[in-house]
Specification:
1 helix, 61 residues, mainly alpha
Length: 61
């Protein structure tokens, strides 16, 4: 049986990832990513429903 390993790249800088810091290449890249999380740089944009929207499907006027 033949297995092929794909070379993973750093999630920050696209260098080869190192197992000790997976999925990053170094402690520096791992720390940069942690800093982004702590500063709340990673966000999911929310779409606000219109003011007249209700969950039961009936619009309030």
């Amino acid at each position: 049986m033949t297995t092929s390993k794909s070379i993973r790249t750093c999630a920050n800088c696209d260098k080869a990832a190192v197992a000790a810091y997976n999925p990053f290449c170094s402690k520096r890249c791992a720390d940069m990513d942690l800093g982004r999380w702590l500063n709340e740089s990673y966000t999911i944009p929310a779409v606000e429903p219109p003011d007249d929207w209700s969950e039961d499907g009936n619009e309030e006027y």
